[in-house]
Amino acid sequence: MSILDNFQDWKNFLSERIKQAEKMGMSQETIQNLAYEIGDYLARDVEPKNEEERLLRDMWNAADQNEQRVMAGLMVKMLNDGKK
């Protein structure tokens, strides 16, 4: 089973990667830029495995680049808030 099959597993995986990036000294801006690049890759090249991913892809594709960057930042914020 892939981590993409379950949205909670995917969120947990991303949260762990954010923690690792922070421990390596990456700034929030760098992390958000990486989140944008990952979001763009997923929307273009990865078939959604569940309804949450399908919704995110559809929203991503409807958004302009600035809105996509906001979405990426919100995803990082959501995962950071989950650590508290």
Automatic annotation (TrEMBL):
Name assigned to this protein: DUF3243 domain-containing protein
